[in-house]
Each structure stands twice: as structure tokens, then as C-alpha cells.
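[SOLVED] Need 3D model of a two-part complex

Original post:
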Amino acid sequence: EAEVAQSPRYKITEKSQAVAFWCDPISGHATLYWYRQILGQGPELLVQFQDESVVDDSQLPKDRFSAERLKGVDSTLKIQPAELGDSAMYLCASSSEGRSPLHFGNGTRLTVT
Amino acid sequence: LAKTTQPISMDSYEGQEVNITCSHNNIATNDYITWYQQFPSQGPRFIIQGYKTKVTNEVASLFIPADRKSSTLSLPRVSLSDTAVYYCLVVLGSGYSTLTFGKGTMLLVSP
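Solution:
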């Protein structure tokens, strides 16, 4: 079964540093999502793409977070500068269209020290 | 956006049937219900979705009463490996649908 690939699996960075996460969705999936999950909480949507266009980034802290999906395939989420409160699991998901089931990757565990 | 409410945690034993109920009082006519399962250090995994009555697949059953204000995920004969967090979500029936996860239900299956 095809999977959503994410890298790195783990990332430790110091506060004020820049950090980036990469996601490769399932081939052919037009919709891509980035979620953030704090320990003990459910995933929180950061940004949703339809092809290369952002359709929802209302919860993305735009002063420090940015996301792009330039060719409508893979995507990068960046944080600059990282803060202690950004420590969390960052999950990428994709779906073939907006209301079909989401397929999640195994995430990137970020620790900011 | 229909808010969902589900128990924070449930306990069960191996071999038992587990029913997790979710309330979604404000569900709109075209919305439907979906459930995900999440193990530690993994992303959520789709289990089942439905609009009304009953849906069954190889993993679970989903029961939705006529008023659709609640739904019940039924896991038959659970095993230790079913220990996970289960999320109930409402998918909007029109427009771009953004899945909003709550805290889910932590199911602990004991021997």
C-alpha cells in the first residue's frame, strides 16, 4: 500500500534556529495537509493545499511558519525562528480529493531546546 | 462546523466488543461521520465512515441512528493491539472540508 513519506523522523533544534520538514504525499493525491500534534492532544490543522494552492491556513502562525507545495506534489513546512512551544509532532496527510479519507505519514517529532 | 463529543477514555478486556459513542448534535444534512485510529508515534489511520444506518468493514462497524446526532463505533472482539486513541470527526458535505480532530477516546485493552 502506498504511503505518505515524511522526513526527518526526528529533529532536535535550539530555539531561534530554522527548521524544515518535508512531505511526499501518495502519488496522485491532490489535497495535502500539515497538522501539528502536541502530546495528549488531537492533531491541529496548520495548512491545507489543493494542488499547489493554499485553501486553508487560518491556524498557521504566519509570523514564523511557512508552507509551500510548488509543483503540487511534495511539500515543505518551515519554522523560523523555532520557539520552545513548537515542540510537537508534525504530521503530513494527503487525500485524493477533499472529502475522501486522509492518509497520514508517521510524522516528524520536533524538540526545541 | 459540527462539534463532536466522545469519552476521554475507555477500558476493555481482550475478546470483548467495544462500543465508542460520539455525539454531533449540530451535524448538517450533507455531512457524514468518519473515525480514525492512532497508535503512539504514528499518524492517524482511517477506520470507517458513514452517512446513516449501518456501515461495516473488516475492522469495525459504524451505527448511525435516524436523527444522526450521534454515532457508535463498534470494535468486535478487541485484542491488545486495539489499544489506541480513536477520533470521531464530521466531514462537511459541501465546500472544502477540513478535518478537525478533538482529543479522541483513549481505549485501553487489557489481557
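Edit: The two ends of chain B are 39 Å apart (CA to CA).
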